[in-house]
């Protein structure tokens, strides 16, 4: 068997890559202008020019002043060269103040704001944990503490102020300029307010700066979730060790057994059918006719190129693929779909949609934008639109499991598996009125991988849509199993993927960060790994049920042996 270990996967065919190409069309985020940007010269030359200017015009003006006093000429009589010298003096003074004085000014402002903070009106700030007013967060990823000394006496005062509501808890990061200290103070205040100990919730060992303004607000610690590894998963000729963050006993062991069955049967194969994130705003018109006019305009292929041009300005990686409309009376729901490179893409697609809405306002001034998301997207809710149309990555994955593997590794037989699948995953789910739930436990595997790799766990809802098919092949001896998952929403950049632990798990799979050569290839590979792991999980759990092992193994691995009454 030709098996390659954890090498980067070759790029997917261009059809599967889904239009992630094209020239860079958006510029990088603008930084605020600095004083040193005043001239298009290296910093030392810019400084030299302004220093020379400052001292020479000062010397010249003083010289002229002395001459005027000597000749009894009034000082306010100024010549053209003198006016130029005064302007140069002011300009160079502003530059030098901007360059060298800024630290002094900032220190001064920090002191002043600290004093003001102490005097804040109780009525404004009362209420621990008030989150409806969001304080501006420090811009820097690693801000220098505005209040440098870390004295416990000082911390004690701040904790007291948070408890009595003088200092809003949400403002601690921006006020202290030290994320770890802010978490410590908030946690102390929380313990005093609730009277409950947080001793078992760890505080140390986490980089709170890395979540600032991006992943979690008002942190008081972090929860530890064990990460197990299943594998190797042999998928498309490559081996992957799959990280799974879970507290459900049996899950990793069971997925691991499925991986083994797949491995010894020659591996699984996957195909990525589609790659496009969606966002659907809702807009309202005065009557049905106008709503229909916009629907026809958006769906007319003649207008697509113009709309795509406007949409794609949101990011170098966003490429509009389609717009699907649905009308409810005089309200129009427009489902925009676009490829998003290696990002899961919600931010990207939302920005693109906003561009198009702004653009449409000129031709449809009577269009009332009710919401950038009108739930036809549909994000984090079970919805038929995702099940049928797909959202994120649509993947199908299959494996042929040999008869002896079914017997020896999975401890069951092909006929029992096929019958169970038909009755449980297909018929039983139909009886239950399932929406995308034609599987045994896809969400178990999806959630565990999502948490380990920094995906948005709430998207487990539609990402776990899956239909598991089983069929006896080769005259009934072997088992053909497949999982079809239309809405796997994953990314390898943005959100929680950049945090240290999650990033390490992505790295283990060889899909960390952006794929420089083929933008989007890392996220697409991750989606196929998710589907392959679900295949392994389905195979193993279905086998356990078919063999009547489920209760037995749960009793062994999942049932706590501790006497909980004593723990309480
Ligand atoms: P999301 O849209 O999933 O919420 P973000 O907008 O937070 O993700 O993250 C995407 C950011 O990463 C964008 O600013 C984008 O320009 C940048 N980026 C860098 N490389 C890539 C890549 N290969 N694919 C997608 N985005 C990338």
Mean pLDDT: 86
General shape: elongated
Bound compounds, each kind once, are: adenosine-5'-diphosphate
Helix count, DSSP H or I runs of 4 or more residues: 21
Broad structural category: alpha+beta
Largest sheet: 9 strands, mixed
Q: Give the DSSP E fraction (strand runs of 2 or more residues).
A: 15-25%
Termini separation: 54 Å
Helix content bin: 40-55%
Poorly predicted regions are 6-33, 103-150
Work out the radius of gyration.
31 Å
- How many DSSP-defined strands? 12
Protein name: 3-hydroxy-3-methylglutaryl coenzyme A reductase
EC number: 1.1.1.34
Membrane topology: Multi-pass membrane protein
Pathway: Metabolic intermediate biosynthesis; (R)-mevalonate biosynthesis; (R)-mevalonate from acetyl-CoA: step 3/3
Write the layout of secondary structure elements.
Layout: E1 4-5, H1 14-17, H2 43-70, H3 80-100, H4 102-118, H5 122-125, H6 152-163, H7 172-176, H8 179-194, E2 227-235, E3 238-245, H9 251-264, E4 268-279, E5 282-284, H10 288-299, H11 301-312, E6 319-328, E7 331-339, H12 346-360, E8 368-371, H13 384-389, E9 392-401, H14 403-408, H15 414-431, E10 437-438, H16 442-453, H17 460-463, E11 466-473, E12 478-488, H18 500-508, H19 521-546, H20 550-557, H21 564-567
Helix pairs in contact: 2-3, 6-8, 9-19, 11-12, 15-19, 16-19
The structure holds adenosine-5'-diphosphate.
Adenosine-5'-diphosphate binds at residues 315-317, 340-348, 491, 493-495, 514-515, 519.
